[in-house]
Amino acid sequence: GQNIDQPTEMTATEGAIVQINCTYQTSGFNGLFWYQQHAGEAPTFLSYNVLDGLEEKGRFSSFLSRSKGYSYLLLKELQMKDSASYLCAVSAYGQNFVFGPGTRLSVLP
Amino acid sequence: GAVVSQHPSRVICKSGTSVKIECRSLDFQATTMFWYRQFPKQSLMLMATSNEGSKATYEQGVEKDKFLINHASLTLSTLTVTSAHPEDSSFYICSARLASGRAVGNEQFFGPGTRLTVL
């Protein structure tokens, strides 16, 4: 099986930078995904990492270390609309996609 | 990008009735669709994997006779909640995976979700 952990809640200020961590334990790792989910809506895809390193996409970046079972999502120049839940999900060969518990981010003015 | 639709977006029903939720991949073929359930302030929990032309695979603790899944075509999967009870009230989300089945960046495409309220 897979075990995924994220902080439950985080708070940051508009314009700041925030890092949301995700740790996982799995065999047959096949990729890690980050999704953003606003309340009452379906998740939307943010990023995908399968190799070690940093993937940058505008204000959002995602990092992966397979040896450490660790990823983070970095959000820069925070905006109020970034207040949402951020879900990390792990894909593994022969297993279903598993979501972490999610991190609720609150961006304050 | 790939688009997945769900219908209805919101449904309110009486206890004991059955509710059918449709999940469609609009511009691609999906051999595999997934059904998730999400309770307030919780993450998505996989209920079952729906494979076109074969029986669904249910996760542990999910009653297959209560949550009927049919994946009759490469673009449509349905979830029927039978004899619904108030504890079945939840946000149901489907997702679809491209027919290639490979993780190519955005492996699963999510529908907008269906909010079910059982009175």
From N to C, what is the helix and strand string of chain B? Answer: EEEEEEEEEEE
| Gyration radius of chain B, rounded | 14 Å
Elements of chain A, N to C (H/E): EEEEEEEEEEE
Query: In which range does the helix fraction of chain B lie?
Result: under 10%
The tally of strands of chain B reads 11
Using only CA atoms, what is the Rg of chain A? 13 Å
**Number of H/I helices of chain B:** 0
Total helical segments of chain A: 0
Quick structural summary:
Chain A is mainly β.
Summarize the SSE layout with pairings:
The complex is a heterodimer of chains A (109) and B (119).
Chain A: E1 3-5, E2 9-13, E3 18-25, E4 29-37, E5 44-49, E6 53-57, E7 60-65, E8 70-75, E9 84-92, E10 98-99, E11 103-108
Parallel strand pairs in A: 2-11
Antiparallel strand pairs in A: 1-3, 3-8, 4-5, 4-9, 6-7, 7-8, 9-10, 9-11
Chain B: E1 4-7, E2 10-13, E3 19-25, E4 32-38, E5 45-51, E6 57-58, E7 67-73, E8 76-81, E9 90-97, E10 108-110, E11 114-118
Structure description:
The complex is a heterodimer of chains A (109) and B (119). Helices cover 0% and strands 60% of the residues of chain A. Chain A contains no helices and 11 strands. Chain B has strands at residues 4-7, 10-13, 19-25, 32-38, 45-51, 57-58, 67-73, 76-81, 90-97, 108-110, 114-118. Chain B is an all-beta fold and 119 residues long. Chains A and B meet through strand 4, strand 5 and strand 10 of A and strand 5 and strand 10 of B.
